Each structure stands twice: as C-alpha cells, then as structure tokens.
Amino acid sequence: MQPIERVDDLFAHQRAVRAFADRDVDEALVERVLAAATRAPSGSNTQPWRFVVVRDPGVKAQLGEAYEDALRETYGGRGGGAGAAGPERTPWTRVPVLIVACVQVPARTGQAGFQTGASIYPACQNLMLQARALGLGTVLTTMHRRRRERIHEILGIPAGYDTAAIIPLGWPTQPYGRSRRPPAASVTMRDRWDPARE
Amino acid sequence: MQPIERVDDLFAHQRAVRAFADRDVDEALVERVLAAATRAPSGSNTQPWRFVVVRDPGVKAQLGEAYEDALRETYGGRGGGAGAAGPERTPWTRVPVLIVACVQVPARTGQAGFQTGASIYPACQNLMLQARALGLGTVLTTMHRRRRERIHEILGIPAGYDTAAIIPLGWPTQPYGRSRRPPAASVTMRDRWDPARE
Predict the structure, then answer these.
(1) Chain A residues with CB-CB distance to B101 below 8 A
(2) Fewest C-beta atoms under 10 Å: which of A108, A161, B112, B147?
(3) In angstroms, how far is CA B138 from the centroid of its own chain?
(4) What structural domains does chain A harbor?
C-alpha cells in the first residue's frame, strides 16, 4: 500500500487488512504507531491505556490458538472475519506484530463498560490511522473477548485492566482502494431522532 | 486554530476544545466531519452508527440543562471538564453544533457493552480528527450518560440504540499547541504484561 501524507486522503483509505507479507516491521515504525495512539483523547484525560507489543512466536501461537477457537465458535466452518473476495487471512503466528490494547477498568465498577471504550478505542483508531499513513495494514479485532479469560492468562493481564482489541500489524500483500460507504446523509439526523433513517 | 494538511502533524495537535467562538459552522464542514466518521471501522463492518446533528436552540438548551445537571452531580461546584488553566467552557446553548453519536445495540444483549464501543468510538475519533484538520474544535463528552434517560427522551432515541458521546463542534476561541504526553514507551510492554509499567 502506498503511504499517505495528506489528511484529506487518510480516512477513506483505511481498510481492514488481514493478509500480511512475510516481512518484518521495524521497531521505529511500531513506536510511531504507538506514539499516535497515546495522543488520543480519554475520559478526564486519564490516558488509561497500556499496549502489549507481541513479537514472541510462542506468545503469538498461544494467542492465535485462542483466537481461532473464538472464530470457530462464532462462525463455525465459515472462517469469519475476512471478506469473501479478500486474500486469505494470515494466521497470527505469521503476523509480524500483534498489538494488544489494554485499558484500566473503572475502580467504581471493577469492569469495563460501554463508556470505558471512549478511553481506548480512539487510541486504537489513531494507531491504525498512523499505520495506514505509513503504508502498514491493521485490523481491529475484538473476537478475542470470547476467550477473554484464556487470553488474559496467556498475557498475564491483571484484574484492574481489560483488553479492548488485538490489532495485527504488518505489510499488506496487495494494494487496497478506498473503502465503500453510503453517503453520510443516510445516517445523519437533524435535531432529533428520525425513524426514517433508523 | 490553523488547519492541518499533513498526517504527520495531525494526532499531536488534537486538543479538547470546550470554548467556542460566536461563529457558525457551515453545513458543508459538518458534512465533511460526518463523512470521515462513516469511514471508520466497525465490528463485522456493520456501520451501526447514527449521528444526530443538533442546531435547534430549544434542543440544545434541553441537552445542556441535562448535561449541567450531570456535571454538578459529578464535580459539585467545581465546574468540571475544563482544565483549570483553560478558557471558560461555552454552554451548549452557545455551541454552534452538537453531534450526538449513536450506536445500534447488540440484539443478543439489548444493551451496549464494552465491545460495542469498538463500533462507534473510532468513528467519533475520525470525526474529531477531521474537524481538527479543518481548524475546528471538538471535545469527546460522555458525561451525558449520567442523565441518559432524560437525554434519550429529549432526542427520541429508541430502545435499539444507545448514545456513545455528545461532541460539541465549533471554532476555537484561541490557538492550541501540541498535546503533552509521556513517551509511548512508558505505556508499552513487550510480549507479556509488565507490572513495572502498570
């Protein structure tokens, strides 16, 4: 994929990339995407994120096994995740880097709720946009949450944190064009909820 | 604020803007930020977002009242939200546009959970980044959730949807520099959880 320099070209060129070339990602680039992640907003600017950068083949294999289990449970034999027309999904053992986005859970409830997402998913999005700008591919996966206990055991995530996403990072095997979307007007309402656009 | 054209300058220049000039925001710009929002990733690419663009003074007043209630409840007399050194927060009645980001809730549970955030907060972040690139200010607010029932009543949000954030949009009253962040290394772990960076 071509790098992107201009903001005007950025958003429409973010694609879910699940197939990665057998080519390493320099540590300097990983640091670039993480730096972008930490610039995101968070509730009361608490910056409650932690990022586990997984390159260890053993850890990748364990995470991959739990992830495949979760996919099988959800999609059965249908694979899942990849679009039917897309290239074959690279197993996590052969993805150069897996980034596990973690977030501190609110002390009051002891668990991550809907609103907790406001303090970690913008950071994930920054990470993925910065990756795209560098010509790198990513995909936001949350399916690991169906094997949350196992995943947390593998990584040693403590009780005060939860895992929001696991983001594979690598060089795409093919170019990607712009994403397809209906006009924003079709999901925009004026002043009050509009059942016609529900 | 100066517009931003280059991706390299984008992330570090996103700031929480709570004070807005008495100047309207052209509809074409609102459409730009909404178009960016709809380019975001979402679970299984379901694009489950809806955006309520509030310009009606009566609706803004009602939302603002509920929001101030929630702030008072949370922060007492201390105002809340704005940094102590920042300019005074503009009341929602005088913010040009309020964008209410809504998301369809999973049919299985009937309510938005942590993971639901993965399908709406990246869209909110795109919206805010595109706004910043245009020289517009925003801030991600979720405090309305403490008056969720009232807010949903004002807007007519149906049971199958929830509100992720209310994002004020307008022209900042002052310039803003880069955000301050500790080095990403301080929140980055390698292969497994690292209690030293907890």
Answers:
(1) none
(2) A108
(3) 7
(4) 7-197 (3.40.109.10)
